[in-house]
Amino acid sequence: MKNKTVFDFYKNIKDFKFKNSNMEKSLNLWRKIFFKEYPRFKEILLPIPKVKRFDIFQSLLERKSHRNFVNGSASLNDLSLLLYFSCGIKSVEFSNISERVANYNYFFNSRMYPSGGARFPLEVYLVLFKKIDKIECGVYHYNVKRHSLIKIKKGRFKKTIKDKILLPVNKKMIKNSLFYICVSSYFGRSFIKYGELSLILSLIEAGHLGQNLCLLSTVLNLGCCPIHGFYEDEVNKLLDLNSDVEEIIYSFIFGRV
Ligand SMILES: Cc1cc2nc3c(=O)[nH]c(=O)nc-3n(C[C@H](O)[C@H](O)[C@H](O)COP(=O)(O)O)c2cc1C
Q1: CB count in 10 Å sphere of residue 103
Q2: Tens digit of pLDDT for each residue in 95-122?
């Protein structure tokens, strides 16, 4: 079945790359990689993740969407590992993970997921429902360059997420969940190079990042459910996103299973 609106929409975007290439115009601009930073907000450096051995085939077989969580907790290493290996920056220069994270002079163009034209429009946020080590409940931005969390808001937001953010069908999942990870896109970073195609590229990239989260969560014995059933404007509000430039596109809920 062909839905005309969706296909017309896709066709317009698809043609954009042939009709209107911005590449010549903004050559220098699109080489620069942009990072979101909150210089005046409190920063919590995450520890160097301790790597666990695992079997990729087993992880793929075990991956599934979990919607019922048991009472439990996650460790600081779980969180550090999940964030770093889903979306952190890597470098071919260092074989030692601690040097990679600690040294800021590495290549900024290689991360744990691929990005169209290495524009990296995605940003990652954490809403923590249960204290992990010294990290209190609240809303955080993941600073990918420093492998750190920036505290945006302190407080318990489980009820807000249940009442205002999740579609009715998803509300039950919040019970016993430990944290919620949101992925947004700063479309402009990709738009300067790819124009309207940047919408599609961002969604594809979020899928790559999301698969990393899903597979890593199986390694950590955490359950994870990808969620797109949310009210965008309410998520933007919770994360303090300026929706003129940045929009939530995907989210994931985690808990013990
Ligand atoms: C883009 C995307 C959005 C999704 N949104 C939701 C959601 O809002 N609620 C939900 O319960 N599951 C959601 N899921 C999970 C799917 O329902 C699930 O992947 C599918 O039923 C296949 O089951 P499995 O993941 O266990 O293999 C989403 C999955 C994807 C890829």
Answers
A1: 12
A2: 555 555 555 444 456 899 999 988 999 9
